Predict the 3D structure of the following.
Amino acid sequence: MTPWEALALLLLLFTGVLVVTLKNAIHAALALIGNFLILAGIYVALEARFLGFIQIIVYAGAIVVLFLFVIMLLYAAQGEVGFDPLVRSRPLAALLALGAALVLLSGLWGVNLAFAKDLKGGLPQALGPLLYGDWLFVLLAVGFLLMAATVVAVALVQPTRPLDALSPEERKEEKEVVR
Amino acid sequence: MSYLYASALLFALGVYGVLTRRTAILVFLSIELMLNAANLSLVGFARAFGLEGQVAALMVIAIAAAEVAVGLGLIVAIFRHRESTAVDDLSELRG
């Protein structure tokens, strides 16, 4: 492990800790952007250049900005809200997270992989034939899923019908009710 | 291998965040952290076994985008209705 790798992984874990501990939601989202940028750098180091740029454009650029929009729209920057039904549950949560980490690390224990496969730089030229070959149906399914998600998002946040949208007869009835 | 270990630790951090955060938006941020930990291990395995891992990571990113769209739509709808995004307020599962 070179010093640069160690630095990148340490920064990755540090920004991850910031994401789960910072009190202000906006600060947590900004830490998440930092986490994603470092992750993009690691992807480039792992010969996944296309994925690295997608990580910056889609994740840091679109998804987290959407998060920031919603946080600011709802004035939900305050992370500690409501009552705490399980008082001092943090150590328990830390213990459970530690257990998850141990399970995952025990799965990796003793595995020795050679990270030396030639991936042609992970450029679109190398990914394209796979994406439109073996993975074509997965690609189509994901496309359909994205369309469904768009429809659901629009349907969910649609406001109840405003008065202007009523037909003339309905509006007349509405006015009579108001009188 | 250090990348895979880091991915495991990052996933555990996401688990901790999901368990401790009390706002729905911050729970979502932790879920994103977990998705990215999985992505990191996929890309790491791609370096050892071949390009398929990177294609899978690409699919995970697309699915995460769909999940965020639906999730944030839900959060906005719930906030309109209840003036709150605290997950503990929603445990009754009724309007």
Q: What stands out?
A: The helical segments of chain A are 3-21, 25-45, 49-73, 90-108, 124-131, 136-156, 168-178. The CA atoms of residues 62 and 165 of chain A lie 32 Å apart.
